[in-house]
Amino acid sequence: MAYQAIIAVESFMESQTTDLAQRLSQCAHAVFERHVPAPNTFEIDQPIGYELRTRFDKDLGHVRRLVVYMRGTLCDWSRKGGGCVYCGFYRATNGGVRIPDDACLNQINQAYQHYIDLGADSVGIYNDGSFLNPAELSESAQHAILETVASWPGIKSVTIETRGSFVTRAAIERCLRILRGVRLEVCLGIDSLDPSIQGLVTNRGVRVDATIRKLQLLKELGCGATALMVYKLPFLTESETFDDLLGSITRLTELGINVDLEAMTVQSGSVLELLHQEGLYRPPWIWSIIELLRAAPDPKSVYLSPFSYSVMTKDVPRNCQHCSEDVKRELFDRYELSRDAGDLPQLRDCCVATWREEFTRDCETSLEARVAQHLARIEGRIGCRA
Ligand code: SF4
Ligand SMILES: [Zn+2]
């Protein structure tokens, strides 16, 4: 009898979680439908922009990476699943009409001069979606881009992002043949290795175990395998975020998988923006991120992305107004070049007490109850059920 009762409670909790995840997905769909741009809103043969990132790479040492923000077609997951809960990248895309091959190649050719002028030796190509998804970037465009980039002088490495479902042995071997010895790094979004968090609060639409298998396949094929993790997901407290990320990073380090830690920004056109407008979300404290890097078992395998992406943001990771800019400078100009925990900024008196209070505060409400309460606050605003 007791056993049956436990089963009943467990299945009730599971159905409640699934119901919440569906409500979150409906919100994401509604927000996407409101903001998706019409095709050809933007120039399709111009990239969105470029950025030079000097960074430490565990396999290559210091690299000067030219990041090319390509104008993308539209992430398929935004259209089919509403997109990840924090994502506003779709607003900078071509609204789902695939960008022709010659326009894609034009975008890359324009990046060449920046590559040379900035003295870069590696390239990151981000298309606000999945590089390996033929619906977003045709196979012939993928080939042409990789072939072009591999011919640039002194190039050591190319980084792409994709959803794990597009990583197959055949697709990766094809890319490697085209790159002819230039190293390929592939980044897969996963956010949390805890399925109960990942499945409830991200609307990412991927399975943790399947994504890990794809990262292991990439390693087996000799690629750089990098898990994309955002710090901090909505609905979680600062301390839950820290514990979840530390557990995830520790496990990934044990598996020999690198981490690209992306501190959360509030992008316009995302569910996160609605939560932020309702006062239900604050971007992470920079101190929390620093404490995570201090605690990480191998800081050399955790890359901290600058807090800037291809779209405008409404709010960014911060401490107080007195120290945020200085601490960011120390973090990116000193620590990120050495990845030595001794180079991490020291806590400062201006806001450490406030941060510590928030960092150690427990929340008595369960995560499920919090998700339900927070969703109820935004659903009415966007025409989802209240
Ligand atoms: S975060 Fe990436 S995978 Fe998620 S919806 Fe945005 S572009 Fe697509
Ligand atoms: Zn401060």
Structure description:
The structure is a single chain. With 386 residues, the protein is α/β, with parallel strands linked by helices. It contains 13 helices and 10 strands. The strands form 2 sheets. The protein has an 8-stranded mixed beta sheet with strand order 1-2-3-4-5-6-7-9. Helix 8 (238-254) packs parallel to helix 10 (286-295). The two termini are 36 Å apart. The relative contact order is 0.12. The model is unreliable at 5-13 (pLDDT under 50).
Topology summary:
Blueprint: H1 2-35, E1 49-57, E2 61-69, H2 76-81, H3 101-117, E3 122-126, H4 139-150, E4 157-162, H5 169-179, E5 183-189, H6 195-201, H7 208-220, E6 224-231, H8 238-254, E7 258-263, E8 266-267, H9 271-277, H10 286-295, E9 302-304, E10 313-315, H11 324-338, H12 352-360, H13 367-379
Parallel strand pairs: 2-3, 3-4, 4-5, 5-6, 6-7, 7-9
Antiparallel strand pairs: 1-2, 8-10
Helix pairs in contact: 1-13, 3-4, 8-10
The protein binds iron/sulfur cluster and zinc ion.
Determine the strand fraction and express it as a percent band: 15-25%
Number of helices: 13
SSE string: HEEHHEHEHEHHEHEEHHEEHHH
Question: What gap, in angstroms, lies between the N and C termini?
Answer: 36 Å
Helicity range: 40-55%
Kindly report the CATH topology: TIM Barrel
User: For the residues shown, what is the average pLDDT?
Assistant: 94
- Hetero groups: iron/sulfur cluster, zinc ion
Radius of gyration, taken over Cα atoms and rounded to an integer in Å: 21 Å
Main sheet record? 8 strands, mixed
